[in-house]
Amino acid sequence: MESRLLLIFSLPYILLLLSCLSSAQKPGFVSLDCGGKEKFSDELGLDWSPDDKLTYGETSTISVANETRKQYTTLRHFPADSRKYCYTLDVVSRTRYLLRASFLYGNFDNNNVYPKFDLSFGATHWCTIVISDANTIEMRELIFLATSSKVNVCLSNATTGQPFISTLELRQFNGSVYYTQFEEQFYLSVSARINFGAESDAPIRYPDDPFDRIWESDSVKKANYLVDVAVGTEKISTNLPVDVNSDEMPPVKVMQTAVVGTNGSLTYRLNLDGFPGTGWAFTYFAEIEDLGPEESRKFRLVLPGQPDISKAVVNIEENAQGKYRLYEPGFTNLSLPFVLSFRFGKTSDSSRGPLVNALEINKYLEKNDGSVDGAAISEVISHYSADWAQEGGDPCLPVPWSWVHCSSDPQPRLVSILLSSKNLTGNVPLDITKLTGLVELWLDGNMLTGSIPDFTGCMDLKIIHLENNRLTGEIPSSLANLPNLRELYVQNNMLSGTVPSGLQSKDLVLNYSGNINLHKGSSKKSHMFVIIGSSIGAAVLLIATIASCLLASSKNDAPAEVAHCFSFSEIENATNNFEKKIGAGGFGVVYYGVLKDGKEIAVKVLINNSYQGKREFSNEVTLLSRIHHRNLVQLLGYCREEGSSMLIYEFMHNGTLKEHLYGPLTHGRSINWIKRLEIAEDSAKGIEYLHTGCVPAVIHRDLKSSNILLDRQMRAKVSDFGLSKLAVDGVSHVSSIVRGTVGYLDPEYYISQQLTDKSDVYSFGVILLELISGQEAISNESFGANCRNIVQWAKLHIESGDIQGIIDPSLRSDYDLQSMWKIAEKALMCVQPHGHMRPSISEVLKEIQDAISIERATETIREGNSDEMSRQSIHSSMNMGSMDLGGTENYLSIDESISQPTAR
Ligand SMILES: *[C@@H]1O[C@H](CO)[C@@H](O)[C@H](O)[C@H]1NC(C)=O
Ligand SMILES: *[C@@H]1O[C@H](CO)[C@@H](O)[C@H](O)[C@H]1NC(C)=O
Ligand SMILES: *[C@@H]1O[C@H](CO)[C@@H](O)[C@H](O)[C@H]1NC(C)=O
Ligand SMILES: *[C@@H]1O[C@H](CO)[C@@H](O)[C@H](O)[C@H]1NC(C)=O
Ligand SMILES: *[C@@H]1O[C@H](CO)[C@@H](O)[C@H](O)[C@H]1NC(C)=O
Ligand SMILES: *[C@@H]1O[C@H](CO)[C@@H](O)[C@H](O)[C@H]1NC(C)=O
Ligand SMILES: *[C@@H]1O[C@H](CO)[C@@H](O)[C@H](O)[C@H]1NC(C)=O
Ligand SMILES: *[C@H]1O[C@@H](CO)[C@@H](O)[C@@H](O)[C@@H]1NC(C)=O
Question: Rounded to an integer, what distance in angstroms lies between the CA atom of residue 354 and that of residue 361?
Fold first, then answer.
């Protein structure tokens, strides 16, 4: 066993600092109250501040029984998308810190779905947070040596629920506390820090521990934690001071209590977070019992499978050179399992059983150095203050920023920069030319000035977009030396001089029109393709507008990312020669199919062939297939052969919302109100992702109840997004054709042809009215004389206070009127004539979620009268439904259960 002698080096330093530490708040302590609104001091004397500088995420207030600490009454949560959300903290370089993050779910989203997501520290995956109880705080700690002046903590990869965080704390160590010889390559992730023989369940921390380490009480009965305690284990304690030498060691209060194995053994089994792996493990002993002159306490540590460790004999008093003094044997590199069983056993010549005061185990967590281009890209973003430049963390890991694509190397490279139309001013940042792995550069549509820099360092560049800026000077002839350059767009700038002949003789798409002082110059025409018009330009523009919500790596870089191209025969076979038609809509007929691997698919055969050219089509489809969200129907691939174009989607078992509201599938009984609210919530989440998870937003343009599909669990996904764009024929400009479905179409968009996200909100308002009323959006009979339109009809009733007049009679009275009103009022806001008067989809989503919690609260009361069976089934559908992951076969839907006779 080796002792820690390192503190000797820190002593002079300690003495020097002594006089300047008098302020109330410990220097080097940062305590962020996530979602908090104001600064405050807690009862320990720690100063908390809100995380209100963060521009991402939303805040929530929660209330958990017996948790009164202010920092646990708020939290911040983030969308469940494929981005990362980062906190940036200031630190002092070459200093060690304890970083602590904590998570108290408290059912903040009224979803009762326990979130699961990843936490990373810079580019290093730190841990996965799995919430398993709404009222229990999950806590993770990391010890690190700062190597620069900032560190990042990021949440990402929501597998269930929404990522959230309650607190984030930094505690600065001084001197060589927690130095390890591996610290350049490894962090220490804290797995256990236990105070044995504790007098209460409360942990010991600041101010007893000057670094605010949390020494957990061994009396807390956590599941799977500290079990297998041997018979005869007893607590002991003393009031006498224990000499612990320095504050690197456990605080005196921790050392004043211990457990003793009165029958000769101390045995424990505990689960070690983060293990198996190699770790740092120390035990802390102090003799705090008075032994008689003839008595002795000698024991050994026994670790299963590690016989060598059992050789050393501990005699605390001898090892510590006295009573009430600390002895701290440990291992700086020990291999440990997840379930650690250990035993201290007395030697045969010892009169007393073993004693232990405290224990500390940390796991070595290997650092990931992150992307190669980190330094260069930080220089680039340091020129800008917009949100995209503040995403934080590593540019590529664990997921890339929203506007870059990265290679998939262990140390990734930036391969695409997608900064079209971001209002960039000033020169093209020179540091971009240091991104030597760059393949695509999109800087078009900004206000960039100055000249085009020399890209000689970026030999992989294939596509350069600099058009529609204010660039001056000549086109550098060095561009001709880029061996892979295939597309160069510099039109509509203020460039001058002549087009370098090297570029003119290259096999290249080159557009330099709209530069008044730029001349073609003399050259022999060879393979040059000059595009002055905009036919390909328009198609490329389409790609640019949705490119930046794509989080996967560049299409040029990773061919595996290209949308799957199915062969016609494969589709022919899967659909059994287009046998089973399952739907038809504005874009074409949909067929059912089963792939060879058993996966069920829906094949949409697009109606006409006014679609873009083959390459643009497959590019567009590739982009659509990369949009992933649990409430968006996944595009699996496409097929373009035999003169037809097809899109292949995941198959949704329960058809469209339309069919369930008033189609033949209802069989006279339709879905109940809570289910309708859940469908509204799911759809709103999908739309919210299109509007806010993609930059710039993707506007659906054709939302309607037949575009909301239902899976086996009756959870909803939005389909057909992006198709309006796909159908734009090559030549015409994107926004020149109004597209949409009568009854759902935003009247303002129809008149002005200006498409905004509020057009989708209008359509969604119509869907909400359908959910309330069970009526179609347009009907010749239902709405009375002179009225064909659900909006006019509903408005008339709701505004005169007669909500009953529009509620679907098949809902009987199984709904809460308050939740119904909430939705009705919001629906009317959504269908306001002017876009600026309509709420955002996120606001609508909030309202739906409020209505759901109202409905669930009253449902519980209503259930009081119904039988056990139906209560259970409603319950299970909520949990499973909102998890929405793998299909559970023995699912019992609400509809089935409420159609059962109940004991009302
Ligand atoms: C809260 O504390 C009270 C009193 O200490 C206790 O009776 C109750 O069980 C606690 N509730 C929870 C949920 O822990
Ligand atoms: C996201 O989490 C899931 C489950 O925890 C895991 O299987 C997957 O590898 C993670 N993805 C990434 C990109 O880390
Ligand atoms: C533990 O020791 C006590 C007395 O020291 C004895 O009575 C008891 O039987 C022992 N228990 C076991 C399991 O050895
Ligand atoms: C610990 O020891 C193992 C070999 O026993 C070695 O491979 C490893 O690099 C050491 N350090 C860490 C931090 O695991
Ligand atoms: C660019 O500036 C305009 C006008 O100031 C603003 O409306 C627009 O949102 C900005 N775009 C971006 C991407 O910041
Ligand atoms: C599909 O392929 C399988 C085997 O590859 C064949 O048995 C089956 O007849 C094919 N079906 C159609 C409709 O072509
Ligand atoms: C949903 O689909 C499943 C499987 O196809 C079916 O058993 C169930 O009845 C459907 N539910 C409704 C409400 O239609
Ligand atoms: C570290 O160095 C010495 C103290 O300065 C101790 O007395 C201690 O105060 C310093 N430790 C801390 C916690 O700041």
Answer: 20
Is 231 a pocket residue for ligand 3 (Cβ < 6 Å)? yes
Give the three-class secondary structure for 193.
Answer: strand
Q: What is the pLDDT of residues 692-747, one digit of tens each?
A: 876 557 888 889 999 999 998 899 999 988 776 654 433 333 344 566 788 898 88
Give me Rg for the CA atoms of the chain.
33
Which residue CA neighbors atom 4 of ligand 8 most closely? 14
Total length of the chain = 904
Helices (H), 262-347: 316-319
Whole-number Å distance between alpha carbons of 403 and 388: 7
Structure tokens at 178: 């927690």
Backbone phi and psi for residue 234, each to the nearest 5 degrees, phi listed first: -130, 150
Q: Kindly give the residue spans of alpha helices, DSSP state H, lying in 564-639.
A: 568-574, 614-625
Which residue's CA is minimally distant from atom 14 of ligand 6? 573
Is residue 596 part of an annotated ligand binding site? Answer: no
**Nearest residue (CA) to ligand 6, atom 8:** 573
Measured from the Cβ of residue 148, the count of other Cβ atoms closer than 10 Å reads 10
Cβ-contact 134, 105 below 8 angstroms: yes
Q: Which domains does the chain have, with CATH numbers?
A: 215-368+867-904 (2.60.120), 374-549 (3.80.10.10), 565-650 (3.30.200.20), 657-859 (1.10.510.10)
887 CA distance to ligand 2 centroid (A)?
19
The yes-or-no answer on residue 702 being catalytic is yes
Phi, psi of 380 (to 5 degrees): -60, -50
pTM above 0.70, yes or no: no
**Torsion angle defined by CA atoms of residues 736, 737, 743 and 745, in that order, rounded to the nearest 10 degrees:** -30
Nearest to 35 by CA among 107, 108, 91: 108
**Ligand 6 pocket check for 569: Cβ under 6 Å:** no
Give the β-pairing of 635-641 and 564-565: parallel
d(CA 239, CA 317): 18
Percent of the chain clearing pLDDT 70 (strictly above): 83
Q: What number does the ligand 7 atom closest to the CA of 714 have?
A: 1
Does residue 157's CB lie within 6 angstroms of at least one atom of ligand 2?
A: yes
**Whole-number Cα distances in Å, 476 to 10, 415, 452:** 57, 22, 7
- Is the pLDDT at 72 greater than 70? The verdict is yes
| CA 182 to ligand 4 center in whole angstroms | 9
Place of tokens 């002005």: 752
Do 891 and 877 meet the contact criterion of CB atoms below 8 Å apart?
yes
- pLDDT tens digit sequence for 152-171: 999 999 988 999 999 999 99
Please list every protein residue whose CB sits less than 6 Å from any atom of ligand 8: 14, 17-18, 21, 174-175, 210-211, 247
Q: How far apart are CA 863 and CA 643, in angstroms?
A: 57
Q: Do 481 and 504 contact (CB within 8 A), yes or no?
A: no
| Tokens coding 468 | 């529609």
Residue from 109, 702, 760, 895 carrying the catalytic annotation: 702
Q: Looking at 802-851, which runs of residues are DSSP E strands? A: none
Look at residue 687 and give its three-state secondary structure: helix
Contacts 24+ apart (CB under 8 A), 14-22: 14/174, 14/175, 14/246, 17/174
Residues 683, 720 contacting (CB under 8 angstroms)? no
Helix (H) or strand (E) holding 539: helix 535-547
Read off the pLDDT of residues 810-838 as tens digits, 9 standing for 90 and up.
888 888 888 898 899 899 999 999 998 89
Distances (CA, A) of 564 to 549, 560, 618, 621, 623: 19, 8, 9, 9, 11
